[in-house]
Hints:
Largest sheet: 4 strands, mixed
Helix content: 10-25%
Shape: globular
InterPro entries: NAD-cap_RNA_hydrolase_NudC (IPR050241), NADH_PPase-like_N (IPR015375), NudC-like_C (IPR049734), NUDIX_hydrolase-like_dom_sf (IPR015797), NUDIX_hydrolase_CS (IPR020084), NUDIX_hydrolase_dom (IPR000086), Znr_NADH_PPase (IPR015376)
CATH architecture of the largest domain: Alpha-Beta Complex
Radius of gyration: 22 Å
CATH superfamily of the largest domain: Nucleoside Triphosphate Pyrophosphohydrolase
Family: Belongs to the Nudix hydrolase family. NudC subfamily.
Number of domains: 2
Pfam family, one: NUDIX-like
Domain Nudix hydrolase: 181-305
CATH topology of the largest domain: Nucleoside Triphosphate Pyrophosphohydrolase
Keywords: Hydrolase, Magnesium, Metal-binding, NAD
Amino acid sequence: MEITAQEGLLGPLLLARTAIDRSAAFRGDAGWLERAWADGATRVVVVDDGRALVRREGEEAGLVLLPPAEAPEGERYLLGVDAEQVAYFAVAPPGATGSGPALLDRLAAALPAGRGEVSAAGLRQVGSLLGDLDAGLLVYAVALEAWHSTHEFCPRCGSRTEVRAGGHVRVCPADGSQHFPRVDPAVIMLIHDDRDRCLLARGPQWPEGRLSVLAGFVEPGESLEHAVAREVAEEVGVRVVDARYMGSQPWPFPRSLMIGFFARATTTEFVLEPEEIAEAHWFSRAELLAALESGEVRLPSSLSIARRLIETWYGEPLHGDW
C-alpha cells in the first residue's frame, strides 16, 4: 500500500507515506513473530532516541536496515510486511533512549564500506529525503519507541509492564491491565478571510520571521471542528466557520497526529493570547510572496503539514524554509 499524497493538498504529506501492511493479525501470533525474526530476509530498524542509521548520498537518503542476526538486543516492535512478504521490525536497545549517538555510531562503524555516508539521523533531518518505505518505517519506529520509553510502568499499580503483541501493547503482570500506544490528536488550520487572505502567526519561542498556521490539541469530549474554532478564538481572537478537512499526518515528536483544516474567518481583528502568540498577520498572496522574497518571513519545513496547507492556499510551491 503506497500513499504519497492526500486529495485536496498541493504535494505529498511527507510523514504520511507508507509502503507496508501493518499486519495486525500477526502481532499476537508468537510463532509467526519468531519465524519472521529468524528469516534472513527480515529487516530491522534500530532506533535510538528518535534516530536511526541513515546512508546519505547527495540529495538522497535511505535507512540502513539490518538483518536480525546483526541487530542489537532490545525490545522488538513489528512494523509490518511489504508486498514481497518481507517482514520489518524495529529494535530499541535497553537504555538506549537519551544515551546519545554512541550505540548507532558503533553500529555504523561495523558496517562494510559502501557508497554514501552513514550516520545517525532523525526525521527532521532526513524525513523529506527518504522514500515511501523508509519514511513510513522510521515514523512508525520513532513513534513506538517514544511511547514505550515513557510507559515502562503500570499507571494503576506501578509494576513494570511487559511488551506484548509485537510491541503494540504493554501488559501489567500484577493486575492484568493492558496499555496501548498513545496518539495525541491536534488540529492545524489555515484560516482565510473573505478577502482571501491567510492568517500566519509566530509563537513567542520562535525567532523573528518564523511564521506558521495555528494549531492546538483536541480536548476531551471535543469534536475536531469545535477544536478548530476554539483554538483560533483562544489564540488570536478570530471567529471562524466552515472548517474543511484537508488531510492528516503523524508528527511523532513525540506522539501527535496533525489533522489539517481550512476554515473561514468571520472576524479579522486580533486579540492575541501572549503566552501562545507573539504576533499575527493577514497576508494576500502578493504580500506573502514579497515577504518571502525579502527574507522578512520564513515558512515551516516542507516536512510539515503546515507548509502543505500554506502552499495549497497559495496555489503553488513556495520557498523560504525555517
